[in-house]
Amino acid sequence: MDALRDRFPVLARVAYLNAGTCGPVPAAAAEAAAAELRREAEGGRAGLAHFERRTELAGALRAAYAARLGCAAEDVALTSSTTDGVAIALSGLELEPGDEILTSDSEHPGVLGPLQALRDLRGVRVRMAPLAELAEATGPRTRAVVCSHVSWVDGSLAPAALGQLDVPVILDGAQGIGAVALDVGALGCDVYAGSGQKWLCGPEGLGMLYVAPAFRERLAATRRGFVSLEDPGAGLDARPAPGARRFDPPANHGAALLAHGLAAHDVLDGAGWDAVHERAAALAARLADELAARGHDVLPRARTTLVAWRDPDAVATAHRLAERGVAVRYLPPGELVRASVGAWNDESDLERLLSAL
Question: Which of 15, 72, 283, 339 could be bridged to 349 by S-S, CB 3.0 to 4.6 A?
Fold first, then answer.
């Protein structure tokens, strides 16, 4: 993986262990985005060629993200973030006051925010249970289950039994896509929302949303605009686009943003996804073992890319590590430190973290 590591300029000076927030940017991605901006500056953005280029990039990126999800490109919408995807899915459910959404007691604000809106604005009840117990915690009023595929706190996995439920399952895949091998069909979820800027090393403001074909017609497209309509010229008679593109947000993704996302994906794709996933998981497991051996209280975890340990002054520790050239993060309210380990890392990054602690 040395060749992959060389594609990320930041790694020459920083032990970058924070892809769970934003992944490192490969040089090729920055160059691709800059090329699109130069094209726009020199050629303008008014001609047909500009819109054709943007459509071309969006189609290629949609197909690339679909490959990572293990689905067809027509099953994927391009969004702005995981939170955006979760909100699109939740707003499209036909929920009434008193209906219940079940979620875990360890979710990211990206899930809790859309759930709070449902509670406050539509009278939906939100109930919580431990992630490992969600499948058994559904009740007669449960209309959907919303939770992380990979926990943002400790890297634990959602229970496989969720795929057997007879209510819709919406997964937050922010710490899943790009980080672990993924097949949405095997997961049995109805919706999978993910981020482009984390483990896929794309730009902030880019995400994806998988909607299972069998579930698509049950989910209303509540936000419609030019890119999500089949024939925008039909005015009020325009129909939603076929496939999951009907859930594309109204705001257009700029060519530079799309080019960055596609180039970053292709850098990782060139290294081979099996190797990318195995390398990251193996390094994360090694870090967890080393931390425990040195007396740190590491949270139980699955074979994923996140490692979290307890620290009574996690905020200060994260800042001190940053001063030593080690990028990690603390988790609110400030009692956990989390390292996010990618295939671009190597043993020297782990040792730099351990020595700085």
Answer: 15
Kindly report, residue by residue over 148-162, the tens digit of the pLDDT. 999 999 999 999 999
Phi-psi region of 272 (alpha: psi -120 to 50; beta: other; left: phi over 0): left
pLDDT surpasses 90 at 35: yes
Return the CATH class of domain 36-268: alpha beta
Q: Residue 282 in contact with residue 341, Cβ under 8 Å?
A: no
Q: Distance between CA 186 and CA 172 in Å, rounded?
A: 16
Domain ranges of the chain: 2-17+272-356, 36-268
- DSSP per residue over 113-162, as a string? HHHHHHHHHH--EEEEE-GGGHHHH--TTEEEEEEESB-TTT-PBPPGGG
Burial pattern 284-305, b for ≥16 Cβ within 10 A else e, equals: bbebbebbeeeebebbebbebb
SS (H, E, C) 167-209: CCEEEECCCCCCCCCCCHHHHCCCEEEEECCCCCCCCCCCEEE
Q: Phi and psi at residue 297, in whole multiples of 5°?
A: -90, 90
**Per-residue model confidence as pLDDT tens digits over 233-282:** 999 999 999 999 999 988 889 999 999 999 999 999 999 999 999 999 99
What's at 320, amino acid-wise?
R
For residue 307, the model assigns a pLDDT of 98
Given a cut of 90, whether residue 191 has pLDDT beyond it is: yes
Largest alpha-carbon pair distance within the chain? 66
* pTM summary value: 0.97
Strands (E) located in 255-324: 306-310
- Please state which of the four CATH numbers 1.10.10.10, 3.40.50.720, 3.90.1150.10, 3.30.300.30 is assigned to the domain occupying 2-17+272-356: 3.90.1150.10
For the sheet with 306-310, list strands across it: 306-310, 336-340, 329-331
